[in-house]
Amino acid sequence: xxxxxxxxLNGTERVRYLERYIHNxxxxxxxxxxxxxxxxxxxLGEHQAQYWNSNPDLLEDRRIAVDRFCRKSYxxxxxxxxxxxxxxxxxxxxxxxxxxxx
Length: 102
Known about the structure:
Layout: E1 2-9, E2 14-23, E3 26-32, E4 37-40, H1 43-53, H2 56-63, H3 65-84
Antiparallel strand pairs: 1-2, 2-3, 3-4
């Protein structure tokens, strides 16, 4: 199973892309865009990381994920997030003495 994650510092000034591979609830290898390579986290991951790192096309695809996936997602979601910032949710809460929201 794989999980992808983007970490943002100062908007998109510094973006880090992580792609983690997990087996039996244990991360065995991951790709870190700051390093630009797959890194082994367990002995099982050593062989897999070496294999993936030997494929230049795969590495290039993961390296550009910062722009393709992270920065693009940030640009798309920022207007939605800033519009919602500070929105009150009290209107959605049930009124005292009633069993449902207004």
